[in-house]
Design goal:
Shape: globular
Helix content: 55-70%
Number of strands: 2
Number of helices: 6
Radius of gyration: 13 Å
Order of helices and strands: EEHHHHHH
Strand order of the largest sheet: 1-2
Number of domains: 1
Structural class: mainly alpha
Length: 111
């Protein structure tokens, strides 16, 4: 499996390119997989780490986010509301900071 490596301060995080998120319920998994794949394909992991500014991910008018939304649609998920998109982007931001394994462990602990 191909992997991308991202650096943050003294830590190195390995973000797998083709994650399956199988621990997520089938009805919502596509939101995670398409967002992760879109961010990876567009090379936006450093961008996702940053604060999205006024309006957060929900109301941002940033062209990068519009490009990301279009890529997610192209990958097969076009049902995001502003709230679901904002929530998934915050989760992707968490993954960019702490890694997939930490997210998976945290998710499974509190689901």
């Amino acid at each position: 499996m191909e992997a991308a490596i991202y650096y943050r301060k003294e830590h190195i995080y390995n973000v797998d390119v083709d994650l399956d998120f199988k621990f997520i319920a089938d009805d919502t998994r596509i939101m995670y997989t398409t967002a992760h794949k879109a961010i990876t394909e567009l090379n936006l992991w450093e961008y996702i780490k940053r604060d999205p500014g006024p309006g957060g991910f929900l109301f941002s008018k940033d062209p990068e986010l519009k490009h990301l939304i279009n890529k997610i649609k192209e990958l097969g998920y076009s049902e995001h509301t502003r709230a679901s998109f904002g929530s998934i982007m915050r989760i992707m931001q968490y993954i960019s900071e702490y890694g997939y394994t930490t997210f998976k462990n945290h998710y499974n602990k509190y689901k």
